[in-house]
Amino acid sequence: MVPESRTFAADPASVAEARRFVRQTLAGWQAEHFEDRAVHVLSELATNSVIHARSSFVVELSLDPAGLRLCVSDDSGRRPVRKSRSAQATTGRGLALVEALSAAWGVDRNGDGKTVWVLLTAQPDEGREPTGRSTPLALFAPPEDVDADPDEGIRACLTRPAA
After folding, report:
1. β-strands 4-8, 57-64: how paired?
2. Which of 21, 137, 138, 139 is in the most buried spot, having the most CB atoms within 10 Å?
């Protein structure tokens, strides 16, 4: 599939527009089986761009045999930080959710900004090393280095298939 991308304004309403873009693109690719996870992950990443980066953001989707790659780029060089929160906290679990729903994810510098990329496979933990924890406990696990796999990242998001 040819990657699809769209730029969205630094406005909270843009998060809903980005979700519609993801749903429409997946429907066009007949890849609706990714929709729930892709929309949840996109919501977290787009919201982070609007709230923390305070910049417009670009959403790029690409589909290949490895799965669905979703990238969100913004103008902030600040890396997202996974926070430890109490069970009563109502915010701060977004990156833990991204990790739980994806096979892999990471952050790459993109000029002065960054790109957060996520790989969604047929099963969320396909290809992931076993942690010995169930997903609910993994949501509260200590953060790990998100750049662990140097072969992943923005290069895959920006690489176009040969014509």
Report:
1. antiparallel
2. 21
Joined tokens for residue 36: 């729930």
pLDDT at 147 over 80: no
Establish if 15 belongs to a structural domain.
yes
109's tokens? 């510098």
Whether 120 has a pLDDT exceeding 90, the answer reads: yes
Secondary structure letter of residue 89 according to DSSP: -
Rg (CA), the chain: 15
Length of the chain measured in residues:
163
Q: How confident is the model at residue 92 (pLDDT cuts 50, 70, 90)?
A: low
pLDDT digits (tens, 9 = 90+) for 9-33: 999 999 999 999 999 999 999 999 9
Question: Whole domain around residue 140: which residue ranges?
Answer: 4-158
Residues with Cβ within 8 Å of 25's Cβ and at least 6 positions away in sequence, in order, are 4, 61
Burial call 46-65: b when 16+ CB within 10 Å, e when fewer: bbbbbeebebbbbbbbbbee
CATH number at residue 139: 3.30.565.10
Domains held by the chain: number: 1
pLDDT of residue 83: 59
DSSP-derived pairing of the beta strands 104-110 and 113-120: antiparallel
Q: Is residue 163 part of a domain?
A: no
